[in-house]
Amino acid sequence: MVPSRIRALAEVAVPALASGAVAGLVVAGLAAMVGQPVGWAAMSAVTLGLPIALLGGGYGLLVASGRVRLGVFAPAAVYWMIGFPLARLLHETWTPALLGGSPAPPADPWGFLAYQGLVSLGFAVGFVWLNERLAPRWLLRIKAHNPIAHQLFHTYAREAEQMQEAKQRRRTGAASRAGKGG
């Protein structure tokens, strides 16, 4: 792959990477809120935030390359059903080790992974929601110099137009039905 294409893809993946990084900050905040020491909270932000950010960037690359269609939740759900539990396993295992202890995997790793798989669906909803709010604004900023961003921005715009048209059709149909019933 040409370096300029790699750079363009990486630049397009920034919002998804940032959406993943936000998860690390949320984890740090929640850990501090429940009384974990500051070091634990900070290390949790790194040990979960970094893998989630990298996975988020990977998801952004899938969207940018057209392998995942915008506005469709199922691919995101499958992606995070695999990625989120693995990121949580890394977090759970390596946070104690990085704070001076030894690696501490969960006592029941399969049960842990299954539970995290269930939790991942909620995470996927939040991730997609945040990413689809950040990405169009970012793409608008970079589309002048990034052809992949230009194409993806117009894909977002078409998706938004189609959703607006469908909403208008529903309103028009509801109004005409209400007029006939009265």
UniProtKB/TrEMBL annotation:
<keyword id="KW-1133">Transmembrane helix</keyword>
<feature type="transmembrane region" description="Helical">
    <location>
        <begin position="70"/>
        <end position="90"/>
    </location>
</feature>
<protein>
    <submittedName>
        <fullName>Uncharacterized protein</fullName>
    </submittedName>
</protein>
<feature type="transmembrane region" description="Helical">
    <location>
        <begin position="12"/>
        <end position="34"/>
    </location>
</feature>
<keyword id="KW-0472">Membrane</keyword>
<feature type="transmembrane region" description="Helical">
    <location>
        <begin position="40"/>
        <end position="63"/>
    </location>
</feature>
<feature type="transmembrane region" description="Helical">
    <location>
        <begin position="110"/>
        <end position="130"/>
    </location>
</feature>
<keyword id="KW-0812">Transmembrane</keyword>
